[in-house]
Design brief:
Rossmann fold; five-stranded mixed sheet; about 700 residues
Length: about 700
Amino acid sequence: MNFLTPLFLLGALAVAAPIIFHLVRRTTNDRFTFSSLLFLQPTPPKLTRRSRIEHWLLLLLRCLVLGLLALGFARPFFNDATRGGAGGNLARQRVILLDVSASMQRDGTWNQARQKVEKLLGDAKPTDQVAVYTFDQQAKSLVTFEQWRQAQDGERKAVAIQRLTDTKPGWRTTHLGNALASAMEALEEEATRSELKRSSVQREIIVVTDLQEGAKLDGLQGMQWPEGVKVEFEKLDLGKRSNAGVQVVAEGDEATAAAGEQVVRVRVSNASDSRKEQFQVGWAAVDGRQISGTPVNVHVPAGQSRVIAVPRSVDSMQAEKVLLTGDDELFDNTAYVIKQEPERATILFLGEEEPADTKQLLFYVQRGLQTTRSLALEVANRSTANFPTAAELGAARLIIVGQALTSGQNAELRQMAEKGKTVLVALKDVNMAPSVANLLNVANLPAEEHSAGRHMLLGQVDFTHPLFAPFADPRFSDFTRIYFWKYRQVNLEGVTGAKVLARFDDEKPALFSVTVGKGQIFVLTSGWHPADSQLALSSKFVPLLYSFLEQAGTVAARRAQFAVGDEVPMPLEATATAQVIRPDGEKQALGERKLLAATELPGLYSVQDNGKNWRFAVNLPAEESRTAPLPVEELERLGIPVHSSSLVTPQQAQARQEKLKHAELENRQKLWRWLVVGALAVLLMETWLAARLTRPVPQTVTA
């Protein structure tokens, strides 16, 4: 028998108290009745020189109570094989988590990690159940519990080590929370399947990682850990190394220092345990390993970051890599840059208007739709006499109609709408109503000019429609400050599928839409030119135009910068025959996919399709540059049952392990309960016996 808290056995010395009380008595227990004691002086009884114990059984019961209580507080347990002893006889279910994130690319890190996993596999006993997982953003199994059981005893370790040999670290970020959750699920599934009781199985999660600060811990807060599961971190000894990383922030022409010169803004982040603070940043030379030209010096204290502008020189105008030098680690010292080409879109305006006429619709459309760095817009003006071809209509993203069209032109326009085009009609006068009816393929669209003595306001706007969704915020939803002097009152009873999106304060339609095939036709019953309204002069006009563009699928500019692991949306124009060329030169067929999820490598990607080429850059996640060790206290604060052998000496770790096994055995056996019950039983017996022995015996005295 062993004791978890043996110092409480010293409490057994308290048995001396009842012995002393039995040996020392100041008065006699016998009493005699006399007829009169009035004239007698009281004198103490004469005791013999030698004290004697009169009630041996009562003394033994009292000593036994104290002894049982002392044993109970010492928390005894049996440590033998028949009672599931702690001497290494417990079966072990162990999940080994191996970090394969980008930070493991550091020099010497991966070799250390693999050696630790091989040692853990070598220490596995025939009765152990072992599973091996790798993790970065997600956990992936190398060897599951099922595969470990199915393999022969002599082959299990060899199979696991062979699969480990074929594994290498990738470039994704570290998500420790997902990894621990997956390991815990694997242990729970194995415990459910196994015939062994959970109390007779030692369950462990061993994490082999550099445990860097940038690891994500999402999902660990409040996680319920099963009883008996412990987590141990096998940290790697990387020495004192300084590390800084570089990430692209933005590229812009507005920050140019000289004519024709471009700059790229990058963020340089220095790890909190770094010993270096001076670094250099510049464009990569042709070989991609050295900085071309004069680098930019940057001072970044440990644990901080700085954003700097890296200008392009004549020699680096075509460079697409920014390099950082001055630290000890190379894995995060490269940032890939793609010169983002603006998204090009053509807007067709159909109307007999002069672009410089401030009284017409076209003037405000051209002023409202301006070319930006991310979006190159071109407004093309066509009249009925110079009506665009089918190819020009197909290339246009948005078609604005500002005059009446012929029936043939309306038929062409409707066909384009059925194929997915968006058409916006501004009903400038009632003469356009028959043309709009023809475009909507209805027999008639009754319309009359409405010119009240007062101005009209927009009384109802459908903010649930995607067109007005950008204005749903209360800060932007006030349309009541836009005055309409004139509008065309239309009757929509004969228009099937017409949906009114905005009404005037007299409840007449101001804007309605009709779905035609895959596209939409919007009809505004008033113009935005000064003769009809103040719409073109309001702050709502330009956002509304871009909202129409968004309905046409135009506004979203194509991103050129992504992180490893991101899903990259493919260009809408890409066909199923397109090919994706990775940085290592490997080609992948795009097929019907509209999202590319296989961004496993940092570098420059391209999508080639029938002579067209779209390019984008994939960089290392910024979190991986935070390579300072994560304090174990942070993990304990999240409730993880951490038992890290890397924080103590082997002797201390073994002692702690033995103590944990002893505590588990004692908690399972709970012998102290029986000792307390026994003490209570003996105490009741002692009370009964003491009462019986001290009961006075009546005696008769004769004169």
